């Protein structure tokens, strides 16, 4: 009952594109997330050269951090503006190509090859297109997904990770009756039932 007021709420892709156009992107943090710094060892678990996935990536600066550490980063984002701003704000040259398996999708890849951002809906991806990942940084992703799509999102994420992967998930704790989201309120019990 505590998420009753948010359950039916939908933020459309069009609305997300508008947020980017209007510069209404309070979720973007120039400084990078302190929790990634804090739990980096859990994500990496002593491993190097990982493939790390950023669902609903926006222009998250953490993608640059992890790429600079020698990992290979893959993100997905509906807003082409966000993807282009990511590369230009970090002065990273990139190339752009269509994705044959997904109509209308584009792949933006850094010239150095270690950052690949798919511009399409996450629901268009599958492991046959993007492969599987060793790690996931989910900040502003599960909590941005419309509540009715959570099960679909979780199943997709599970299909995109290797067996011994590490996934970091950030949620936001607040009274869902006082704020309509996003970020949506995702109770811990639901995280357990989605991901086991
Ligand atoms: N993870 C990022 C952005 C969080 S905001 C960060 O930490 O800054 C959520 C982002 O998801 C927005 O940029 C929005 O444009 C994008 N988005 C929303 N629905 C999406 C979908 N179905 N597929 C891909 N991206 C989506």
UniProtKB/TrEMBL annotation:
<dbReference type="GO" id="GO:0005737">
    <property type="term" value="C:cytoplasm"/>
</dbReference>
<protein>
    <recommendedName>
        <fullName>thiopurine S-methyltransferase</fullName>
        <ecNumber>2.1.1.67</ecNumber>
    </recommendedName>
</protein>
<keyword id="KW-0949">S-adenosyl-L-methionine</keyword>
<dbReference type="GO" id="GO:0008119">
    <property type="term" value="F:thiopurine S-methyltransferase activity"/>
</dbReference>
<feature type="binding site">
    <location>
        <position position="139"/>
    </location>
    <ligand>
        <name>S-adenosyl-L-methionine</name>
    </ligand>
</feature>
<feature type="binding site">
    <location>
        <begin position="121"/>
        <end position="122"/>
    </location>
    <ligand>
        <name>S-adenosyl-L-methionine</name>
    </ligand>
</feature>
<keyword id="KW-0963">Cytoplasm</keyword>
<comment type="similarity">
    <text>Belongs to the class I-like SAM-binding methyltransferase superfamily. TPMT family.</text>
</comment>
<dbReference type="GO" id="GO:0032259">
    <property type="term" value="P:methylation"/>
</dbReference>
<feature type="binding site">
    <location>
        <position position="56"/>
    </location>
    <ligand>
        <name>S-adenosyl-L-methionine</name>
    </ligand>
</feature>
<dbReference type="InterPro" id="IPR029063">
    <property type="entry name" value="SAM-dependent_MTases_sf"/>
</dbReference>
<keyword id="KW-0808">Transferase</keyword>
<dbReference type="InterPro" id="IPR008854">
    <property type="entry name" value="TPMT"/>
</dbReference>
<dbReference type="InterPro" id="IPR025835">
    <property type="entry name" value="Thiopurine_S-MeTrfase"/>
</dbReference>
<feature type="binding site">
    <location>
        <position position="77"/>
    </location>
    <ligand>
        <name>S-adenosyl-L-methionine</name>
    </ligand>
</feature>
<feature type="binding site">
    <location>
        <begin position="16"/>
        <end position="27"/>
    </location>
    <ligand>
        <name>S-adenosyl-L-methionine</name>
    </ligand>
</feature>
<dbReference type="Pfam" id="PF05724">
    <property type="entry name" value="TPMT"/>
</dbReference>
<keyword id="KW-0489">Methyltransferase</keyword>
